[in-house]
Design a protein that fits this description.
The chain is α+β, with helices and mostly antiparallel strands and 175 residues long. The chain contains 7 helices and 7 strands. A hairpin with a 5-residue loop joins β4 and β5. The protein is globular, with a radius of gyration of 17 Å.
């Protein structure tokens, strides 16, 4: 468990997003989609790319994470070497809209589990749950989350989307 992978528990999803974006110094453009990626550590690539891909890479240094949803590249470096979605040990939240894809890889919260709680209770406690576990030092974002950083921004996004779907569904039912 790494002590500094996530922001302090009082941080909100918005402040988490800005901290995680700032942590990826040195933007580089993905050679496939042209969007900037964020630097990821060697431990992230080694833990999450499949073993054959890691062996092919030689060194996992100098890689960037491409968060573009419709780009198949997950990790890339400046010489055109890439790890694509099919070479990952787990699905990537930003690239796979499936309900059972983790939003929080450390504690296995998925879009489906977040939506189910909201449908059942009208709210989500997932952010508080994650913050409590972070405070206890239980997160391992660098080696469980493909983006190599804290998930709170992604979780906040998933909660907002699920709340919006519920609100839309309730509005359709009253019309």
């Amino acid at each position: 468990m790494s002590g500094g992978c996530c922001p302090s528990p009082q941080d909100t999803p918005k402040s988490c997003e800005s901290k995680t974006a700032a942590s990826g110094s040195g933007d580089h453009a993905c050679f496939l989609c042209g969007k900037n990626g964020k630097r990821v550590g060697r431990e992230t690539v080694q833990a999450l790319a499949n073993p054959d891909s890691v062996a092919r890479l030689g060194s996992a240094d100098g890689f960037f994470f491409c968060a573009t949803s419709d780009c198949e590249v997950v990790y890339f470096n400046g010489d055109g070497t890439a790890v694509r979605t099919g070479e990952m040990r787990a699905p990537v939240f930003q690239k796979d809209a499936g309900s059972d894809v983790p939003v929080c890889y450390c504690f296995n919260h998925t879009r489906r589990s977040i939506a189910a709680e909201i449908a059942r209770t009208g709210k989500s406690t997932v952010l508080d749950d994650i913050k409590q576990k972070v405070k206890a030092g239980l997160c391992a974002c660098e080696t469980t989350n493909p983006q190599g950083t804290c998930c709170l921004g992604n979780v906040g996004q998933a909660v907002r989307a699920a709340l919006e779907r519920l609100s839309t569904a309730k509005g359709a039912m009253t019309s």
